[in-house]
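User: I'm new to structure prediction. If I give you an amino acid sequence, what do you actually give back? Let's try with this one:
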Amino acid sequence: MADPDWRRIYAALRVAPSGFAGRGLFAGTAIARRAKIGEFEGEAIGLREARRRARGRTVIAIVELERHALDATATRRGFRYINHSCDPNTFMRCTPQRAEFYARRDIAPGEELTVDYGESHHEGRLRCRCGAANCRGWI
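Assistant: Good question. You get back a string of structure tokens that encode the predicted 3D arrangement of the chain. For your 139 residues, that looks like this:
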């Protein structure tokens, strides 16, 4: 069941060094399976501009939606810091306007949040470092 006050969960998130990829996003409180954790925040830009900005970058903090994208490159908090895992503990639900994050399973306080990027601007050229047993090797 989704937390009726997901803003409480979001407010407790913290950015800290990741065990496998620069900085990561960590749970500041226990998060129940299927609870909404928060929404991706960023500058609303066109899809063509999103692809231009992503070209040549190793770190990409852009989510494409139906008719626009959200670029969180300038944001210093939130889901901009969620790292990829081939066996993630969250999932992303996209609507035409938003990208929302939910817990795939119960998440303990202090646990790093991860999501499967799926199709990404990396186009299978960035080596995955998630360490999961089912790791695909590339993002």
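You can read the tokens as a compact description of the fold. Here is one thing that stands out. The longest helix spans residues 47-54.
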